[in-house]
Amino acid sequence: xxxxxxxxxxxxxxxxxxxxxxxxxxxxxxxxxxxxxxxxxxxxxxxxxxxxxxxxxxxxxxxxxxxxxxxxxxxxxxxxxxxxxxxxxxxxxxxxxxxxxxxxxxxxxxxxxxxxxxxxxxxxxxxxxxxxxxxxxxxxxxxxxxxxxxxxxxxxxxxxxxxxxxxxxxxxxxxxxxxxxxxxxxxxxxxxxxxxxxxxxxxxxxxxxxxxxxxxxxxxxxxxxxxxxxxxxxxxxxxxxxxxxxxxxxxxxxxxxxxxxxxxxxxxxxxxxxxxxxxxxxxxxxxxxxxxxxxxxxxxxxxxxxxxxxxxxxxxxxxxxxxxxxxxxxxxxxxxxxxxxxxxxxxxxxxxxxxxxxxxxxxxxxxxxxxxxxxxxxxxxxxxxxxxxxxxxxxxxxxxxxxxxxxxxxxxxxxxxxxxxxxxxxxxxxxxxxxxxxxxxxxxxxxxxxxxxxxxxxxxxxxxxxxxxxxxxxxxxxxxxxxxxxxxxxxxxxxxxxxxxxxxxxxxxxxxxxxxxxxxx
Length: 521
Hints:
The chain has helices at about 35-45, 65-80, 95-105, 120-135, 145-155, 160-175, 200-210, 255-270, 280-285, 290-300, 320-335, 360-370, 390-405, 410, 420-435, 435-445, 455-465, 470-480, 480-495, 505-520, and strands at about 10-15, 25-30, 50-55, 80-85, 110, 175-180, 185-190, 225-235, 240-245, 310-315, 335-345, 350-355, 380-385, 415-420. The protein is α/β, with parallel strands linked by helices. Helix 5 (about 145-155) packs parallel to helix 8 (about 255-270). About 35% of the residues are buried. Residues about 35-45 have low confidence and may be disordered. InterPro entries: CdaR-like_regulators, PucR_C-HTH_dom, PucR_C-HTH_sf, PucR_dom. This is PucR family transcriptional regulator ligand-binding domain-containing protein. Pfam families: HTH_30 (PF13556), PucR (PF07905).
């Protein structure tokens, strides 16, 4: 893309490690209100924009560095390839260092078009990029299978799924992709365009039986659709049918063969028992953003996923205890929740809850479990995530916890139970800790007056991070009297100029403590 004439004079400012990535679509972003944009994405099109690049001048947020950082983080979270930035020196004087550090820390590309140039036009880049994409999409080369799988391999592990592969294929071929079981019941479907109202189920039922029985009907349908079919074999020997439905034009047989080969490999890698109807399959579909499959399974299992408003993530060290821990969780939660889905993925027991009896405090239910479980030694970490508005929130929180990963134990050395808010703060601290010496120095300046005193540093860290601001708990962890902790904390507050016992003042100190532990672990 960068070799196109319209990019002459452009500079890659960040994300050079992402130069290998494929661009297969392009969008213009001028509504830079992140809250508004995220609302649109969540309600209209739950997607992972793995091959899209965005054009913007950041005009509506030109005066706010914080908003610019929010917008870049928002694009990163969506999976965008990068940002093509126009009119630098005219609309924004220069790209702020904070924006560059954030983008570089996450290998997000920012391409700066020639600065101080009023003659630049969006349509030149849009035309040339889209023309190149269209020309590229007209050919399916011999390396198509490897290229398709490589694209998915660049995604975060939790985003690699059969449905993501179907979305990439649908975007590439501008066709509807439908996976069914042998009864022609839809397992996955991806529409082109995504808001299409085409009745693919009717087409599958009309054209499927003769096709799967070897009597191929290739004639055009009444609505100018061409239906192609291939068989996909699962590891357990069961068969799925792949239907490729394209309006107005017919795909070559060789292309259909390549597509089916890609889907076959995707099923082998990520789709074990892809047509299974179980709570485990439902949870996997939620976590992997397989929206069509999720809705189908929820309907078949009579589970109201819209009622899910709470999630627990219970990470276990010893899988031999997994079944007993799940049984204990089910017994504990059945007293409080009408909807409870409890399944294990890898070393994590995912608990999705809804319809709580309102006479109970949900946080107290979680605290009670932590205090009474007989398996506390087998649990390495537990996250309590309330206010899950939809399955998108569930998936994002699961992804966020996995991004934080084992670093949680570098920050919180004495604890196993965490809230969603603490996980978000940890992620922010982790991002800040890799943004370079200047950023770290700025945050360390918050607690600089006590950094030369090991006793004060340890007391502050334990008080805010391990004891959650509780004097009694801190005294027990430090093996000192409660009044000693109070005296030390008062002196520390005076030295640093923040009262760390007040919620309105301690957050910057709290973040600084997390960053300190990360860089000194």
